[in-house]
Amino acid sequence: MNTTLLSAQDLQKSFRLGRKQPPATVLRGISLAVRAGELVSIVGPSGSGKSTLLYCLSGLEPYDAGRVTLMGSELRTLGRGSLAALRRDHVGFVFQSYNLIPALTARENVALPARLARRRTMKRDVDRALADVGLVDHARHRPSELSGGQQQRVAIARVLAMHPDIVFADEPTGSLDTATGTAVLTLLRQAASGTRSVVMVTHDLEAAARADRVLVLRDGLIHRELATPTPEQVFDAVSLAGDAA
Ligand SMILES: Nc1ncnc2c1ncn2[C@@H]1O[C@H](COP(=O)(O)OP(=O)(O)OP(=O)(O)O)[C@@H](O)[C@H]1O
Ligand SMILES: [Mg+2]
Fold it and tell me: pLDDT per residue over 38-48, tens digit each?
C-alpha cells in the first residue's frame, strides 16, 4: 500500500505578535509526505517550530502559504464545517499539554471524542485503550487526581480509542518514565500500520529512531531526512542541525 495520507508543499507560517513588530517566520517552506502505514518522527531544537508544524498539518492552525493535503483534501479549500468534520472523522491529536477536561474522569475523557462525534461509544474500545496505557485502575480518577504521566496516558488513550487514520502526537512520551514511554511508543508503532499513520514530535532520540523516517527540523526547514536510522544517527543529525543554526 502506498497511499499518501498527508502531504505538504512549501508550507509557510509566520506569527505577528504586535502591529509594529515584523512577523516572525517559523515555517519557511516545508515539504513532506506521510504514506499509509508509516510512523514519522520530527525532531529539532526547542522553538524550531515542531508544534506549529503539527498544528498546520492537522488543520488546527491556518498557514500563510503553500499547500497541505490531508486525506485527499487541501486544507485551505475547506470551510470551517468541512475542516471540523475531516478532523473529527480522520484525525487524532495528542497535545504537548494534555487538554483533558477537569470535570470528567479518565474514562469519560477517553470516551468524549466518540460521544462528540455521535459515534456509538464503543465501550470495548474505551476500556481497551485505558488498559493499553495501563490505567484501568485509574479510570474513575479526575485529571487533578492523576500524575502528569498518567494524564498524558489518558490523552493518548483518548486518541487511540477512536482509531483515527492519522495520529499527530506532540511529545507523547515527554512525561513518561522509560518503561511507560516504551509501552506508549509500541502503541503508536501499532497505530501506524495498514491504512493508518502516525506523525510524532519528540525530543527523545531513542523514541524518534523507532520511526520509519525521521525529519530533522531546523530554521523552519526540513534540514535532514533519515530512513530507519539508529538513535546515534538521529543524535548526529540533530547535533549538526544545532551547530549550524
Ligand atoms: N501563537 C503564537 N504566537 C506567536 N508566536 C508563536 C505562537 N506559537 C508559537 N510561536 C513561536 O513560534 C516558534 C516555534 O514554536 P513551537 O511551539 O512550534 O516550537 P517547538 O519546536 O514545538 O518547541 P518545543 O520543543 O519547545 O515544544 C517559537 O519561537 C514561538 O515563540
Ligand atoms: Mg512544541
Answer: 999 999 999 99
Q: Give the pLDDT band (50/70/90) at residue 245.
A: very low
Q: Is the CB of 144 under 6 A from ligand 1?
A: no
What CA–CA distance (Å, rounded) separates 169 from 130?
Answer: 17
Find out whether 44 and 222 touch, Cβ atoms under 8 Å: no
For cell 549538526, the residue is 240
| C-alpha cell read off for 48 | 524550531
How many domains does the chain fold into?
1
Q: What are the C-alpha distances in Å from 133 to residues 35, 88, 123? A: 26, 22, 16
d(CA 52, CA 63): 10
pLDDT per position as a tens digit, 111-149: 999 888 887 767 899 999 999 999 999 999 999 999 999
Contact call for residues 175 and 183 (beta carbons, < 8 A): no
User: Which residue's CA is the closest to the ligand 1 atom numbered 17?
Assistant: 51
Using CA atoms, how far apart are residues 90 and 84, in angstroms rounded to an integer? Answer: 10
Cβ of 50 closer than 6 Å to ligand 1, yes or no, is: yes
Q: Which atom of ligand 1 is nearest to the CA of 48?
A: 21
CATH of the domain at 62: 3.40.50.300
Q: Which of 174, 196, 195 minimizes the C-alpha distance to 185?
A: 174
Task: State if pTM tops 0.90.
Answer: yes
Identify the burial level of 29 via C-beta atoms within 10 angstroms of its C-beta, where 0-12 means exposed, 13-18 middle and 19 or more buried: middle
Which residue out of 15, 203, 204 has the highest number of ligand 1 atoms within 8 Å of its CB and is therefore the one to mutate? 15
Strands 24-35 and 4-15: antiparallel
Domain limits for position 60 = 4-244
